[in-house]
Design goal:
The chain is of the alpha+beta class and 1439 residues long. It contains 42 helices and 29 strands. The strands form 8 sheets. Strands 1, 14, 15, 16, 17, 20, 21, 22, 23 and 24 form a 10-stranded antiparallel beta sheet that branches.
Length: 1439
Amino acid sequence: MQVHSTIENAILPGQTQYGSSDDVLSWLDTTLTAIWVDPVCGDGVCETPFEYASYGRFGCRADCGKLSEIQNLTILQIDLYFDFTHPTTSIASSTLMDQAAWNLCPVSGVSSGTACYYATDQTFSDLIGTVSVTIDDCPDGNWAVVVKRDYFNKVGGGVRQQEKLDAHSELVKIRTAVSIANQQQDSEVTTLRAVITLANETLVDLVNATIAANYTAQLSQLDTDNSNNPTDVRSHPSLAMVTAAQPFTDDSGNSLNSTEVCLFWLNEASVVSAARVTTIQSTLNNRLAVAATIGDTALASAVTAIQTANPEVAAVILADTGADPVNYPYLCAISTLADYYVEGPYSIPPVARSALANNFVSSGNLTLPDYANRSQARIAELSTSRATVQALPEVVVANNEDPTSAQYSYNYVTWSGGAEGYQTCDLPDRAPSYVGTCTTTGYTTCTATPSNPSDTALSDITYTCSDGSPSATCAAECDQLDWCSTLCFCGPANCTSTQVCSCAACASLTVATSDKDYASIQAAASSGSGRRRNLLQGPVAPPPPPPPSQEEQTLEQILAAVTALQTGQTTLQSDIDALQAQVNAANAAATANAQDTSLQALITAGRADIATGQTAVETLLNKIIGEQNTAAAAEAAAASALAAIESLTSEQKAAAESIASAYTASLQQIEVALQSGTISLSVGTELFKAARLNQAESSKDANLANTPCTQNTDDYSFTVANYNDSTITSARERYLGLTNRVIGGMLLQTTRTTPVNCTDSRFSDIESLCKGGPDLSAYGVDPVFKSGTDLYNNDLDDEADTVSFYNCNTLGYDATYNVPNTDTSLTTSATTNPEPYCAELYNARELPYGFFSFDLPQLFGEGFPVFFDINLSADEVQTFYQYVEEGLYYDSNTRLSQAQFVTYNPELQIFSSSIISFDFTDGGSILVTYSIHTVRVELYESPGDYIRLVLEIILTIWVAIQILSEFWAIIQAKRQQGSALAYFKSAWNIVDFLSTALLFACVIVWWDFALRDALPFDINLRYDVYADLQAEAAFLRLNQNGIFLLQLQAAFAKLQYLVNKLAWYYALNGINILLLIGRVLKRMDFQPRLGVVTRSLALAGPDLIHFCLVCGMVFVGYAMMAHLIFGNTIQQFSTFGTAVNTCFAILLGDISVNDDLNQLQGLQGVAATLFFWSFELLVFMVLLNFLLAIIVDAFSEVKENTHETTGLHTEVGQMVREKWRSMLASCCHGSDYVPDKRLGQLLKQWGGEEEEGVALAEKEAGDKERRLRVLGEDLTAEELKEVLQACLRDAGPSGQADDKRRSLIGCFRPRRHSKLASEEELEKAAQYVVARFGAFDNEDVSDEEEEGAEELEGKKKKAKSGVNDALLEKERDQLANALERLADVQRELAEGQRSLMTGQRQLQEQQQRLVSMMSPAATAPPRQGLTADGSIVAPPTRP
């Protein structure tokens, strides 16, 4: 009852009748809100997985702790590299920066759901820079770095696992440090080897080296003369040859003889020897500085290379600033580590290095061999140091491990981006004409040669190609190659050196000389050919400036409105004038290969100036827009971003116009140069090609700069997996009340009817549609695709996304398309549902249905189920409710809606099944009914349960014995009376048999329930009914075609079966209890005072039957009257059954319906008053009091007749006292004590012997006949039979009535019959009475008794002659004494009975009638009997 009342208060609607489906939805909303409550953090209970250990801004630390303290987590490093600079012909760079944002968001498998790591998106504060973020508590799952509104791919970056990044960086740092140390060592070794070589040279070698260095001319002559000899002086015969080849002279120029030459060389050798020592000293002293410089250079070069290739690795390496390479090499700075690896670990300073210290080297005490030996020792020392460093643990690891292996692969995901990112992002979608493929077709090498290198401006350019094609053809091929290399993109890897990147943009290129714009170039060249010579004679006047372009006119109109930009217009005009002068100068200095880009630079500068003015206008407009949107919220910012993107079309158009204007200006300048004779036609053609290529490149840049890469977000996904144990329960805790946990969720089912035409109504023009048979076709609309609803998602409202959720190809059968149009509101087509919108999933307007039928055969049958999963959060369940509400789950065709809850109470171990039904009646109202049942299936769990089990087994055995005894009684009845049905002649036997049979049936049902149903019963806490609880659309898409929904309904149906079976069990027990009550009342009739109630009901039975007939007719008449008069206006009288119940409630005192009766008006109001008052007066006050009077009268009469009887307490007390005396006598063992058991045996034995004695006495009496003395007269058995017959005839019904009154209920008197006794029965009764209480003729009763006793005693002695005489004598004495006491008691009872009979009025009346009947007629023979005066007439003598 506790569970029942709790659930009743929690989910039952407040009314039994609703007026509209909105009331049902309101109940549904209230129920879902009350049950689907998210857990509260801080209650001390960690409700996994929906409360979880905290990380970031998520989780519940108060209940579940910190995730980093529980699991092994990954430390993420997010690196972003951004450059928002953008061409000025497009959206402003600052706008791109302001719009872009990023966040770290989970994709799946994360406890926090889909909520991003940061509450708000992270923005950028600089146009160019980097962002590096470390997240140390990222749980396992699928994640994504979401970059939002990066429309031109300005943001690149990557997500790294910091632990592996650190390990990778350590390997790279160790390797780099070792490499730098080796380079320093190699530098020092090279220096030392040079010193050793210099120190070991002989004087001749030194002089030869000096000669080779200072007398190269002479040695060259010697080489000429001695071509077979090398230049080494030592190979010459003597130094005189040097003199012969080139005589030596003194300072005055005089030639020296041989002696003088020898002295010269001796002096020169002395100088060189001294210089050699100085050189060795300086080399040794500077060797370490040179090595350090080489190391620094190598370090800078290595760090630069690492930063270029892997900036994240360089950042980690440069972040290490430790200074202890011995103990903490991985934390040490790379420069410190490199210096440490030069010398390696040592306990004392290196000896050889110390020996080459500056103080020793420069002391002058060392000889050349000393320098050589110490240098050699230092080389050996460096070799040992290198070997020692290679043996260090960190160096061994760095050498053996591969930083690029999977063990050190630290990147989760990387992506490119930057200032030029818009050039290549999504190129196949944005500009497929620029997507190229690498090919060898058309590949060649080009060389351009001017005809006059000294005057390239007036030269003719000749092209030479590697394929040998003519100059004109080669020029076209070279032009094609320039276009392809400039416009086409073949991916990051690009093409090889022998391939060409070809695309549609360059394939459509025409030859320059065939271009329509080239005609004006040729015309200008023709008009300027005569001026070419005059140009050489002197300068010519500059041509007039070209007219302003359309772009300039547009700028002038804009600048006229903005006075602040007038200065910019003047500057622009000056730039144009300067441009002409620069073109003239560039024509004079044109290079031979026609690759001079000065003209292009000037054109670009002009375009830049134009763009600058345009940027100024855009800046002003952006400032105005910014001021208007200063106080706008996030939606305004998003709208601004969208507007900026939409404005790109106009920006692109403006950029195209600007490029066209710049191209026209370039052509005009070329024409002017040709007309003035400044350049030749060949040079002009090259400039035209360059202008054309520049226009194509600028157009490509402007097109891509104004075409966004994406419209929404870029998700860069990755997976974090540390394989943490995630074995947690997957079911949320939902409760009805405090302790009744919801199983699975709430199952809602609706059945519908098909609308049909109301053909049988004369008023079908008022409403033509009526409810027909069941309808199982899909209906409603998925509100995600229904504009105007809260769930509507504009991003999904397109064909691709819609079909991805509702795919007709997954139906498993052929879908239906092109259905004939039956909707009169759709007149655009003769058919509906074209592909891919099949009729099974989409309506005629190509919108997906919201609800589809599904068969639940064991529960509700076919209908439209909606399941609210317990795993839905509070917000998610409201989303499902919105789906039901906005999808129009309830409409005019709804017939019945049922909601089922199943709960479990662990405290009481009770399951409950609750079904609430909403019946949409034809009258327009919604009737609410419910059923709540509870059942316990854990029957034998506690010690108390096992005690009950033992009692149940005992009861089962007892019931089995009872049913066997009943069948045995039936068998005995058949044996004795010849038919088994004879047993059922008694109504009480029928009651006993039915009660025992029902009790047996209850036992069978219970054990079947316990063993076959309750104990094997099992149910899951949750079922994955739907494919995705967080789906963006198609919320009700079933998981695995509804397998889990069928499992859910099977479990719910099984529980409902248990409930129903237990209800039947309780019903059978209730009926059996009623029968047991009747049996108990029957058994209580043995005691007068206990039988007062039963005898009162029996006495009042006939009157009650007549009263019930009269009262029933009156009561039913009032109920029928109330139903007919008030059934259409008052709910309590709407049906005859409810009218009967209401009238009975009024009879019991509930007159609340009188309020509704008082509200009636007119004739109905009068009828209501008459009905109520007449019912109260007649039925309540009169008939009800009649009923009480009948019962009270019967009770009074019965009570009067039983007031002198002994009470139950007295009889029980007497029995207790007798038993107590018997127990005391047994303990004292008195000589007169006979045990009760023994006394019973003796009485039985005496009874048998007494019958033998009586038979013997009758035999000895012979013809003597027993007579019974009645009122002083002796009657034979025959005479007594006649008296009894007369009495029964005269008694008639009154005697039967009296007999019934003395019974419990007349019809239930055991073995009583309503008819008179038969003659045979009367004869047997008379014979028994006479034989038992009568005496023989002319014989004193006492004498007969004494003689019978003597004969009996003699027979006993003879029969027991074989028994011990002493023992038998004692027992006979005791038996005689007991019999005497018993005889005295019998005499007293007989005398009391006679006196009672004589005092009763009924006996007197019967005696009087008997006397009158026995008066003999004149002709009648005399008979024995009573005369009128009371004398006895003797019967006639027998012949």
